[in-house]
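Hi V.,

You were right to ask for the full record rather than a summary. Here it is.
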Amino acid sequence: MTAVSAQPDSAPARAGWRDTLREATDLALLGFAVALAALPVLTFAPAVAAASAALHDRSITGAWPDPRTSLRRFGRALPAGAAVSAVVLAAAALLAADVLALATGRVPGGGPALALTTVVVAVLLGYAGLVAVAVGRTGGRGWRAAARHVARTCPERPGVWAAASGVCSLAVLLGVLVTPVAVPILGGYALAALHALDARRPITAPDPS
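Predicted structure:
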């Protein structure tokens, strides 16, 4: 009687360089799509919401949503997203002016004040990045609910918060250093990195209502 040897389970195939290149291209195109949709300025938040929702779909199903779905999400996010865009841009302008004033010596405080302000900016960037991820997990809706949800969960996940702050700070720094045409690419990669960070310790998606 011939013994049948058990065949070991085959290991999952690793992604080849073509898959890696395709993924990198998709993220770059996503960044350019966000930049194009955000040209009217107040559409910045809806563009980020739709892109974040697309990345969430990609991580769950393995496929990007069709353009019609993303456009529908973008349109649905416009009313509330315009107000979010105005608040975010105003806060960014104030923080940038504060950092610039400290860096040039127009405001007293010197190095310690500049370092503290930089840390605060990085922490706020990480928080904003995680809010964008939370909005993407609810189909691009519910900025207010996502902001409250992330504010509650950030202290429970300090490592994720710190890593998100690092990702966003690095993206901003590189955005200042690289040629402007490459900035949208950084945006796509940064948003994907934030989703990857959040996926390491998933939490219940906030109620968008």
